[in-house]
C-alpha cells in the first residue's frame, strides 16, 4: 500500500504529534508499506531525506499563524495530488489545512481539538491572543478537515466526544485508537534513584509547570535532597528558570533541554516518579512511556488522562492548578515503597495489554483495508 502521511511535525522535532507520526510511519514501513511523509520545513534539515525506511519531504510554510496552515496545506495538497498519488492520505491533526480533495481515500488522526486549545488559552500570552483572533478561521479549518475525511481516529474517548460536539456531522466516522509506544520502552531496566523526579514535555502554559514548581517548594521541606529533572523546551523556558531561582530551588530543579531517545530511556530507568501536571491532555506519549517503563506516575485529572490513569491503581490523580495536592501526592510516592511497587507493576501490565505499537498498527491497518475495500465496492457498484 502506498501511504502519504501529512503532519505538521515529524522527527527529529519533539512533541506528541511528532512521536505519533514517527512511530506509526516507521512501523508501517517495516511492514512493507511504501510511506511518504509531508511535513513542515525544519531548520537544519534537508527538504528531502530518508529517516529509517520512510521518505520525508519538508515543505516551506509562512511562519506566521494562521498563514502557516494555508501555505503548508496548499503546497502539501499539490504534492499529494500531482506527485505522490498515494492509495491513501493520512492527516495528522491539528495544524493542517487540506485544499480540495487531494486523495480519494483520506483519514485523520485527532490528537486534540481546537476547542480544547481555546479553553486552555487564557490570560494575556501571545499564543492566547493568537487563538482568540484567529478562532473563526481555525474552526473552519478543523470542520473542513473532518468533513473531507472518510474516517476520523481519536486518541481518547474524551477527544472523540469533543469532536462529536464541535463537528456533529463527523459522529459516524469516529473511532478511538489510543497512542502506543515501541517495544524498547517495555525493556527498560529499573534502577530507580532515591528522590529523583521527571517531567517530559513542552514548556508551555498548558503543561501546568508553575504548579509543579510551587509543589516542589513544599516537597523539599520533607525531602531536602529531592531533585526534579525537566526535559523539553518551549516559550516558558526562561520564565521557569527565573522562577526556580526566585524560589531558591536551584539545587532541586534541573533543566535538561532536549535529549536523545537513548538519554530519555536512561532517565526513565533511574527516576523514582514521573509527573505530568497538565491543564489538559488527551493521550500523552510521555505518560505512556512511563507506564511501559514501569515508572510510578502522578498526573492531573483532566481530558483523556483518567481513561489511562486509574487513581491509586495505575498512578495518582490530582486536580489541575492544585499545587498543594500535587505536593502531597509526590511526598506520598517518595515515602511509600509498597505504593511505588504497586503502581509500577500495574502500569507496566496495563501498557503491555493496551499500548504496544504492534497492536496499534494492526488496528490502523484494519482501518486502511476497510477504506480501500469500501472504495473498491463503491467503484464496482457505480
What would your notes on this structure say?
By secondary structure, this protein is an alpha/beta fold. It has 2 domains: about 1-180 and about 355-380, 3-Layer(aba) Sandwich (Rossmann fold), CATH 3.40.50.2000; about 185-355, Glycogen Phosphorylase B (Rossmann fold, 3-Layer(aba) Sandwich). The protein has 13 helices and 14 strands. An 8-stranded mixed β-sheet has the order 3-4-2-1-5-6-7-8, sandwiched between helices. Helix 3 (about 115-120) packs antiparallel against helix 4 (about 125-150) and helix 6 (about 210-220) crosses helix 11 (about 325-335). The radius of gyration is 21 Å and the shape is globular. About 45% of the residues are buried.
Question: What shape does the CA trace take?
Answer: globular
- Ranges where pLDDT stays below 50 over 5 or more residues in a row are 377-382
Largest sheet entry? 8 strands, mixed
Number of helices: 13
Annotation, overall tally of beta strands = 14
Count of separate structural domains: 2
The fraction of residues in strands falls at: 15-25%
The assigned structural class equals alpha/beta
Radius of gyration: 21 Å
According to CATH, what is the topology of the largest domain?
Rossmann fold
CATH class descriptor name of the largest domain: Alpha Beta
Q: Which strand order spans the largest sheet, edge to edge or round the barrel?
A: 3-4-2-1-5-6-7-8
In CATH terms, the superfamily of the largest domain is: Glycogen Phosphorylase B
The first-to-last residue Cα distance is 24 Å
Mean pLDDT: 90
Second-tier CATH architecture of the largest domain: 3-Layer(aba) Sandwich
Helicity level, as a percent range? 40-55%
User: What is the N-to-C succession of helices and strands?
Assistant: EHEEEHEEHHEHEEHEHEHEHEHEHHH
Amino acid at each position: 500500500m502506498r501511504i502519504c502521511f501529512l503532519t505538521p511535525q515529524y522527527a527529529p522535532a519533539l512533541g506528541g504529534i511528532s512521536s505519533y507520526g514517527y512511530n506509526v510511519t516507521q512501523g508501517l514501513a517495516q511492514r512493507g508499506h511504501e510511506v511518504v511523509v509531508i511535513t513542515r520545513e525544519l531548520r537544519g534539515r534537508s527538504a528531502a531525506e530518508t529517516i529509517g525506511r520512510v521518505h520525508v519531504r519538508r515543505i516551506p510554510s509562512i511562519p506566521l499563524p494562521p498563514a502557516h496552515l494555508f501555505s503548508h496545506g496548499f503546497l502539501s495538497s499539490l504534492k499529494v495530488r500531482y506527485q505522490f498519488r498515494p492509495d491513501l492520505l493520512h492527516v495528522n491533526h491539528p495544524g493542517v489545512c487540506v485544499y480540495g480533495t487531494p486523495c480519494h481515500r483520506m483519514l485523520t488522526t485527532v490528537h486534540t481539538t481546537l476547542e480544547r486549545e481555546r479553553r486552555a488559552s487564557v490570560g494575556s500570552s501571545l499564543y492566547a491572543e493568537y487563538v482568540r483572533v484567529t478562532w473563526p478561521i481555525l474552526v473552519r479549518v478543523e470542520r473542513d478537515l473532518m468533513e473531507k475525511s472518510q474516517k476520523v481516529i481519536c486518541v481518547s474517548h474524551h477527544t472523540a466526544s469533543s469532536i462529536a460536539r464541535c463537528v456533529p456531522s463527523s459522529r459516524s466516522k469516529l473511532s478511538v485508537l489510543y497512542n502506543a509506544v515501541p517495544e524498547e520502552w517495555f525493556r527498560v531496566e529499573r534502577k530507580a534513584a532515591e528522590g529523583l523526579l521527571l517531567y517530559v514535555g513542552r514548556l508551555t502554559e498548558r503543561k501546568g509547570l508553575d504548579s509543579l514548581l510551587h509543589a516542589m517548594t513544599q516537597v523539599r521541606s520533607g525531602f531536602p535532597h529531592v531533585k526534579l529533572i525537566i526535559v523539553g523546551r518551549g516559550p516558558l523556558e526562561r520564565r521557569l528558570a527565573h522562577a526556580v531561582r526566585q524560589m531558591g530551588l536551584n539545587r532541586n530543579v534541573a533543566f535538561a533541554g532536549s535529549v536523545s531517545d537513548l538519554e530519555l530511556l536512561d532517565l526513565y530507568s533511574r527516576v523514582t516518579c514521573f509527573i505530568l501536571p497538565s491543564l489538559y491532555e488527551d493521550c500523552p506519549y510521555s505518560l505512556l512511556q512511563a507506564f511501559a517503563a514501569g515508572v510510578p506516575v502522578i498526573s492531573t485529572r483532566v481530558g483523556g488522562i483518567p481513561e489511562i490513569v486509574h487513581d491509586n491503581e495505575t498512578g495518582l490523580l490530582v486536580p489541575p492548578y492544585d499545587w498543594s495536592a500535587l505536593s502531597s501526592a509526590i511526598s506520598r510516592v517518595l515515602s511509600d515503597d509498597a505504593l511505588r511497587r504497586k503502581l509500577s507493576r500495574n502500569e507496566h501490565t496495563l501498557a503491555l495489554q493496551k499500548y504496544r505499537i504492534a497492536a496499534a498498527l494492526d488496528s490502523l491497518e484494519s482501518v486502511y483495508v476497510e477504506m480501500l475495500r469500501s472504495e473498491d465496492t463503491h467503484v464496482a457498484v457505480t
